[in-house]
Design a protein that fits this description.
Layout (H helix, E strand, L loop, with lengths): L14 H4 L11 E11 L4 E9 L8 E4 H7 L5 H4 L6 H6 L1
Antiparallel strand pairs: 1-2, 2-3
Length: 94
C-alpha cells in the first residue's frame, strides 16, 4: 500500500553546493581472460577474447577483439608468445 509522503524542503541539498562534475572518468580494469574464439567470416578470421572486468559478475563479461586487447594489455598475452616445447626440451636436458 502506498502512502503519501510529505518532503521537507529544508533537508534537500542543492547540487551547486556539492560540486558534482558532469563527466567523471572511470577506467575499467580487466581481471581475467576467460575464453578465446575465432569468428570465421567469408574472407577473414576475427579472433576474440572473453574478458572479465573488475566490479562485474561472470554473467556480465564481454567479447573484445583480441588485437585491441593485445595493444592495450600486452602482459595478458605474454604466455601465448612462448612456444610450447613439450617433452623435447626435457630430452635435450638429459
Amino acid at each position: 500500500m502506498l502512502k503519501k509522503c510529505m518532503g521537507d524542503p529544508s533537508l534537500t541539498i542543492p547540487t551547486e553546493d556539492i560540486g558534482i562534475m558532469d563527466s567523471l572518468p572511470y577506467e575499467d580494469i580487466h581481471v581475467q581472460i576467460l575464453d578465446r574464439q575465432v569468428h570465421k567470416l567469408r574472407t577473414k578470421e576475427v579472433a576474440s577474447v572473453k574478458v572479465l572486468w573488475r566490479n562485474q559478475f561472470v554473467e556480465e563479461t564481454t567479447w573484445e577483439a583480441k588485437e585491441d586487447m593485445k595493444k592495450r594489455y600486452p602482459h595478458l598475452f605474454e604466455s601465448e608468445d612462448i612456444p610450447d616445447q613439450g617433452t623435447n626440451s626435457l630430452l635435450s636436458i638429459l
